Amino acid sequence: MIRKFRRLVNRVATCVLLAITVLGFGFVTSAQQTDRAKNIGKKVKCVCGGCEDTASTCNHTGGAFSGPCDTAKTMLKEIDQRIARGESDDMILQNFVQEYGPTVLIEPPKQGFSWMAWIVPVVLPLWAVWMVWNVVRRWRERAALTPAGGPGVSADLLARARSEAEKERDE
């Protein structure tokens, strides 16, 4: 009888530990999903129209309420549901692009014409500095080639000026 009781206690204890373990992993997975949803939400703009924040950082201050808008909450909930279904981050982002267009992404995709958004901010200032340097260099070369004395004076004019100067001195 004592053996049966010990077996029963061991089975109950094993079942309780197994249940705690499974529930504990469930809470950890849920927390990881929420963190993952927030990270994905930082890559997507809130489409409420009242802000330019990400879905994770949407925070309306003042006005009728303060905190994330309903649109941002809905977007995060949708991301969380897609994570629970086992979708990858890229697949979730692609679904948002299909639904709202490419402007929903915080960073434009690094492909095709969108490369311009990555290249122009770097290349344009470098090109402008190079152009200014060339213009200044050319100006300096032209200034160095121009004689400092001005245009040359003919011998006839010089002789006439000397004779007039002598006449004035004599008077």
Brief characterization of the structure:
By secondary structure, this protein is mostly helical. Helices cover 67% and strands 0% of the residues. The model is unreliable at 25-33 (pLDDT under 50).
Protein traits:
171 residues; 5 helices; 2 domains; mainly alpha
What does this 3D model show about the protein?
The chain is mostly helical and about 170 residues long. The protein has two domains: about 110 residues, no CATH class; about 30 residues. Helices cover about 65% and strands about 0% of the residues.
Helix content: 55-70%
Distance between the termini: 153 Å
| Largest sheet: number of strands, sense, barrel closure | none
Gross geometry? rod-shaped
Assembly type: single chain
Secondary structural class: mainly alpha
Taking pLDDT < 50 over at least 5 consecutive residues as the criterion, the unreliable ranges are 25-33
User: Count of helical segments?
Assistant: 5
Radius of gyration equals: 40 Å
Strand coverage percent:
under 5%
Q: Got a strand count?
A: 0
Mean pLDDT: 77
Structural domain tally: 2
What is the N-to-C order of secondary-structure elements (H for helix, E for strand)?
Answer: HHHHH
